[in-house]
Amino acid sequence: MLTCRDLCFSFTRDRQILRDISLDVPAGQVTAIIGPNGSGKTTLLRLLLGVLNPQAGSVFLDGSPLRQSLRREKTSPIAFVPQSSVVAFPFTVREVVSLGRYTDPANDAAIDTAMGAVAISDRGGDAFQSLSAGQQQRATLARALAQLANRDRGVLLADEPVSAMDPAHALRTLTLLREQAARGIAIAVVLHDLYLVRQFADRVIALGPRGALVAQGPTRDILIPDILREVFGVRFVWLHERDNPDGQSLPAPVPPE
Length: 257
Known about the structure:
globular, 4-stranded antiparallel sheet, 12 strands, 257 residues, alpha/beta, 6-stranded mixed sheet
């Protein structure tokens, strides 16, 4: 499990990005992170990854301080999928995926399996930069899958991993994340599409417009009109009289009058 307690972070003294954030990303579940633009979702992922240091608070991996846990590991147990990737050198797609196995570069099976899982095996010899944005996202996900291959525990953090994908590949990608959770990986994924959140997430972390934690818990308890209005600043309503917060329906935003 990945957890944080009382996290605070700011890039400048007069603008705080995140305030007193305490949350859990349990193993074996998909946790969706939602919130308006600028609410600190990407910053939160980078704090959980350990590439940013909080001004206050702590991050824990399986009960131990994150940096202490990372020092004990030969390879990082936390994989990260950014919204977009920049490759400074003319690497092929396969070379990019193999970066996930940097301590075991000869593990062709893990690389082949990861590329097959995201349906990009046929592009292995192509330059990464020649791919479309959605294909690059799939290759970056394959790198994360290769990194976590053969692990019985680990964490996968993904920042809007399907933002450039067509519906078929978006569904396939989120299904892959659920499969990773089913084998014990802790998944935290930033998503804007609430329908995908409802369909694939076990839990939801909702951030407000000023970097505060509005709510966290089971998906059916968070995707309700009152909470979504507080998160996004617009009114949400159940579309039909038969709709109710049973996990099978989703409130829709109402245009301002």
